[in-house]
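dude i think i finally got it to work??
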Amino acid sequence: MIDGLIAATIELMAWPGPAIMLVGVLAGLLVGVLPGVGGAGATALLLPVTYAMEPVHAIGFLMAVGTSSGLGGQITSILVNIPGDPPNAATTLDGYPMTRQGRAAEALGAATAGSVVGAVLGVVLLLAVLPITREIVLAFSYPEFFMIALSGLVMIAALTRGNTFKGLLSAGVGLLIAFIGLDPINGAPRFTFGQLYLWDGIDLTPALVGLFAGAEMLALYQFRGDASIVQVEDGARRSRQLDGVVATVRAWRTVVMSSLIGFVVGVIPGIGGTVASFLSYGRAARMSDHPERFGKGAVEGVIASETANDADKGGALLPTIAFGIPGGTMMAVLMVGLILHGVPVGPSLMRGDNLTIVYALVVALLLPRMVAALIVLAVGGRAVALTRIPGSILAPIISVVAIVGVYAVRNSMLDVVVALVFSYVGYAMQRHGFSRVALIIALVLGALVERSYHQTMATFGPAGFISRPIAVALLVLILLTLFGGPLLRLVRRIKARDYGGTPA
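look at this
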């Protein structure tokens, strides 16, 4: 294995490989900053550029574009509360509050360090389980998908602590929006109001851009006038990117757990980095000694979401190379690129001479990410200056870029309309104290919960939820999340009463 990785690295670094990957990294970072397009969209748009390249160099270019976009997206997520890529949405929850506290550089440093460590651990886990890929992938089926999605919904209770009623109400609205489209059982349209556009449901990209970018721009236009786009709180201290790197090292437990969550979610086809980010964020909030800080500038929230987002790529590559089943949208585009260059996909990729391509994929998953991280660290401190630009100048630019990005994903003006509608919804929720986070989590997971539930009932029956070991383990974790805290407090009260003391 080591010899194969070294040989793949040498082949990728043979000229003009480094120049090709550098161009891919810069393109990925640029697209990541633009809201809406995302890594998968950018990879698909640039796929024709690889026609004349050697297969290994084409792999390096496509992976550089796709994996660097998340690092670009974290910049706008943290600085101006606009997720460049859907998986970056969880980063805005604490990244933007940190910016308002004068800790933008710390947030950027933590996000970048978490991304790099998550990518490294994702690749290490990928190499470790590659020999038993078949058993791991086949261990997950519909009941496990359902339990993973349900555990994400359960995390809403932790993320909305202090105003649980409004949080649950927001989650209910998110579920209703998620159920728009064709019924997974009989194919009948639901809540479509006769619009063909709604048959596929509400796309996540315009909803995210509207809820975050659109809502911020509306608030800016109404309240801030010619002030800077980010109002730093009085008495806020200035930070350094090194502070974020140090915070990542200190939060090593969060990094390891987030990497595991990201990798496992990535292994499951069709779920993606957005789910991994929110699951990891919710787990970090639930297990933190200070959960009340989450959503108000907790650096652990930034670390958890970005680490899981990048570890997800290692997991997503596993079913892609082992079965020819893409672990995510970006991996589906990558498969098209492999086929375009005459590389077999699926089980045949793991045999004979094709192992060179497998090792090239693994190296290309990691190497461009390191280069992108160095670039982000180099320009991150200067990018903070964007927050001091008057809103009257920057807000129109951001609005236009966001609208163009939303339109570019599917070339649909109706996507732009959806983004505008969600802008006003997000603005109203923000003003009246409703949780946009709960709505987004429910919107992301709602369709998966419904689909996997019906698939489980049709395939395994009700026993499917409690007859498979992984599903049972996940169910136990869900029950502990819901009732572990109250039960622990009850036990403490009983002990205190028995011994005549005061409950802790």
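The mean pLDDT is 81.
im so relieved honestly
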